[in-house]
Amino acid sequence: MALPTYASKLERVWHWAYLAICTAIFVFLIAPILVVIPLSFNAEPYFTFTEEMLSLDPDGYSLRWYDSLLTFGMVAPDAPRNAAWWADMWTNARWVNAAKNSIIIGVFATLLATVLGTLAALGLSQREMPARRAIMAILISPMIVPIIISATGLFFFYSNPCEALTWIGLNVQCGRLAGTYPGVILAHAMLGIPFVIITVTATLVGFDQSLSRAAASLGANPRTTFFRVVMPLILPGVISGALFAFVTSFDEVVAVLFIAGPEQQTIPRQMWSGIRDQISPAILAVATLLVVFSIALLTTVEMLRRRGERLRGLAP
Amino acid sequence: MATPLDPHAAIVAEASGLPPAAPLTTADGQPLARALNRSRRKARRQALLLVLPLLAFVVITFILPIGQMLHRSVYNPGFADNMPRISAWFAENPRGTDPDEAAWAALAADLTEAAEARTIGIVGTRMNYDVPGTRSLFTSTGRQVRGGLEPPYREALLEIDGKWASPELWAAMRTGATAYTANFYLASMDLTRDNDGNITEAPKERQVYGMLFMRTFWLSALITGMTFLLGFPVAHLLATLPTRKSNLLMILVLLPFWTSLLVRTTAWIVLLQQQGVVNDIMVWLGIIGDGQRLQMIYNQTGTIIAMTHILLPFMILPLYSVMRTINPSYVRAARSLGATSWTAFRRIYFPQTLPGLGAGALLVFILAVGYYITPALVGGSSGQLISNMIAMHMTETLNWSMAAALAALLLAGVLILYWVYDRLVGIDNLKLG
Question: Residue B92 sits in which domain range?
Fold first, then answer.
């Protein structure tokens, strides 16, 4: 942003002040995330920079907190690191198990949300779709309604999934969904759906419907049209929607606290109890790994967005 | 080639300038209007079929649970189910009837049965919501009536504990005798029923919810204001910089947006705690002495700072997308007509940013009102919001109906805001990233 040549002295001062303010706000935005990274290499169990760290002394830094992520919860963490140690870690280490759970739940929830969400977005962006606004409002609402309310509802629903049937006079007993993997997966899929809907419908706004008509007129059946013409064009939107859904699941803690059992310990839940009980720099090591993970995700989404715009001819 | 039913063929024919005198027909001689309607119906059916699976999924996993929660907020059968005889007595005798020997006999029989079925705890818990401290009365009486009581029951029960004569308890039992009750909503608005069933203000020491709703509302408004103050200059800078630079700076906004909420909350704990980085820097700079380290976390300040940081991208992104579309020549024109830069900003530029501002402010406010994780971790006791109270009732006091009633009130507030958002901005315009 350049200052016009006719700017007065006061305006020049204000311009520099404005840039300084903006810089300060950017620092506010990014500093908390950046400060976590060096502190996770702290050799001491503190949350501040020690003298050694500030003087860049290698002794002030260590990987002990990253190591503790592997050993925490193991039967014999101090045993020599042979095959048995790794097997012990794979089955018993808390954070490793939490990561496994988070990935399993995240992947299935994402698949469910993406498939259902993409189909619905295709329907929603058709001109003939009746009651589009109302349906859209319902499908987006899991994102708007505070998670604590959804989690409270799910808690009641999962402890007795057939209760609604008794309201209409049917007396059916069915199993509980609370404390099961399918229960958590369904809940996370529900929370991720709005993101898929939003990103895919946004992609479809620029989609030229005459392309699928052209395919049909050339003899392609609807399935071929979808997989060979529509899908490649909206794929960037679908993938970013899927990434949003995965992040939602990967970062979700409230519903897990309410409806999951001890079996479904996920990374956020492990972090939650870590922060609440006694916060140790091991949390910062996890945080750093998650920041790296989000940088990777951000890069992917950004690349997909550009690719999508190029494909749809919105950008050079 | 188009299929015979395709209405487009006829439209093309019409557009190509054929005389419109004869009624339009498709190639196989059907009236065009009918063929068009049929194909529209088919398209509508197809569109609906695509949406239906997801709609069913959301209704079952989201709308239904919310419905069940609303049901729970007015339905609590803990007393009525386990104390059937005394509940029946309450149904037969109107309010104001003094408990006669039949009532005492029913109560004694119910207590004995509940104690044997080990449901007396549930009954006591239900009564405890209305009259604090009564859970132990039920459980201890339950232990003593195991072997059965001898008439006269009134004296027998009063001998176990004199509290059984309390009119407050009898009024509460009368309320509990019907499984459906609005009492949890009354309680969540700091109201209660006196012994005659009239709605009155709750005792001062139990009035917490009104204060919490007010605090939630006030803090959300404050956080919205803060995100506006911080977000506006940044959005303006991003929108006016050349694309290459602004894309680079955009990363600084998007990275926090993509980073885990728990990570950002942890980061603020690390920064703001008394032995934390910010205090260290201030001590090092000599702004404060080592003994005067500021308490910036585990209180309201912590909630405000952390939530402002977390919600800031939700203000910047809509503002930015609106500011991008503002034509800079309007401001230049204003300046050339003699406006000072402040006037040009206030009267020309700012009004054009209002759609983005409205969208961002509503979004931030909606999200802030329902925030749970951050206040729970950094809020201490003075930074707790209504969501934390809901969670407390769900996980600690196990007063689920109360949690459901509070959640229902919060839900009503959020839905009103959502509706306003839809009117002003349109949910179709919600964008991510």
Answer: 84-206
